[in-house]
What we know:
Blueprint: H1 5-16, E1 25-31, E2 34-39, E3 42-47, H2 48-56, H3 63-71, E4 74-75
Antiparallel strand pairs: 1-2, 2-3, 3-4
Amino acid sequence: MKYPVFIFHELVLRFSDFNRGIGRYISSTVENGECLIRTTSGKISIGLGLLDKQYHDPKQISSDELRYQASLFQVE
């Protein structure tokens, strides 16, 4: 599935609630069941299931899941 760009912006904003160092969305690539999101300060890899949740029903993503994903952010 091709995801609209606003999904990535929204996820970066939601991750930023837990990690202020994430920065702003720049780009994303989807390969092999993973999505790599690049920001102004680094990158984060997330599963396509999380993208589907954000697209179809963002309320399905718990604060704990967002916090965990934000902790995986890699500064570049």
